[in-house]
Design a protein that fits this description.
The chain is α/β, with parallel strands linked by helices and 97 residues long. It has helices at residues 14-25, 45-55, 71-75, 91-96; strands spanning 4-10, 32-38, 59-63, 84-87. Strands 3-2-1-4 form a four-stranded parallel sheet, with helices on one face.
Amino acid sequence: MPEISIIVPIYNVAQYLHKCVDSILAQTFTDFEVILVDDGATDNSGAICDAYAEQDSRVKVIHKVNVWRCMLSCFCIKTISSSIVCVGASMIQDICS
């Protein structure tokens, strides 16, 4: 079981997604999982998320339209494996700006 779960909401951020996920995966601390929540993106974001999940076992992807508002209480809790949870609501914009 990973020590930390990092949840990253994804919606039409394909141009920033590689930089965001690569930054997370490059950390020296490696006992974590990354849960990418594709909230119905209409660009290539969902496919990029799937490619990361195929390449790295720490990455999980959830494709669910309009799930972000109730994600933690209703949906992702079943997916999270750790006791520490980080939610990056504006992570992509913060890392890439």
